[in-house]
Design goal:
By secondary structure, this protein is an alpha/beta fold. The protein folds into two domains: 57 residues, no CATH class; 143 residues, no CATH class. 36% of the residues lie in helices and 16% in strands. The protein is built from ten helices and eight strands. The strands form two sheets. It has a six-stranded parallel sheet with strand order 1-2-3-4-7-8. It has a two-stranded antiparallel ribbon with strand order 5-6. Helix 4 links the parallel strand 2 and strand 3. The longest helix has 16 residues. The two termini are 39 Å apart. 24% of the residues are buried.
């Protein structure tokens, strides 16, 4: 029943669900750090406080669904209440809110984790831009000029907010630090009319002001990766 003293570590949910004999009721990250407790007292007094040091990384929506099984496990009572750090490096793969998908599953996951203080999510300029032409116009241009047909335009701030349901962040009551990582793809920048990174800075301001209007001071950090 001895915990290691390694300190904070990353729990990669992709590795968890892809391991042999994966079981959300008995996750590998627990087994690798201590002998599974035999009493509820050990679970609540030793293990759960230690879990507050972990960062949980979800690379895809498939990871989110596996994590949801873990949070709901009767063999891991109240685990979800002790998750304090979350990382969404695959956030930009979410294709957007549409009529048959009215919510962003990443924010739905966050809504179930009431103790998360630190959040990291990643954006990509490919998903922050769109074709500079309408579909019909682009088809016509493609027949004459392949290079011009690749031209893109930056999304507006409102388009980004709507696409990712960014207002969902404001329902996360314990957040104190958000790190927005972004990939500035050279080929996207080359083909884009305007600066595709500018909207990320506008988004940072939107989030800061949104929390400020709620009387909350949340630090928003930008980092190019």
């Amino acid at each position: 029943k001895e915990l290691t003293s390694k300190g904070p570590l990353n729990v990669n949910m992709t590795a968890e669900r892809e391991r042999a004999n994966a079981n959300p009721n008995s996750p590998a990250f627990l087994q690798s750090n201590y002998i599974f407790p035999t009493t509820q007292q050990e679970w609540f007094n030793i293990v759960l406080p230690f879990i507050m040091m972990f960062q949980f990384t979800f690379n895809s929506t498939t990871d989110l669904y596996y994590g949801a099984q873990m949070w709901g496990s009767s063999q891991l009572p109240h685990l979800y209440e002790f998750v304090t750090r979350v990382n969404f490096p695959g956030f930009y793969w979410f294709s957007g809110v549409v009529h048959n998908r009215p919510h962003n599953p990443y924010w739905q996951m966050m809504a179930s984790l009431s103790s998360v203080r630190e959040l990291t999510f990643r954006l990509h300029t490919a998903s922050l831009t769109a074709s500079a032409f309408g579909e019909r116009e682009m088809l016509a241009i493609e027949t004459r000029d392949d290079t011009r047909s690749a031209e893109r335009r930056p999304l507006s701030l409102q388009e980004v907010i709507d696409n990712y349901e960014m207002h969902g962040l404001f329902s996360c009551g314990s957040l104190s630090h958000i790190r927005i990582e972004y990939i500035d793809e050279p080929s996207i920048r080359f083909n884009t009319r305007g600066n595709p990174v500018a909207v990320i800075h506008h988004l940072q301001t939107y989030i800061i002001n949104g929390f400020r209007n709620m009387g909350r001071n949340v630090h928003i950090e930008l980092e190019r990766v």
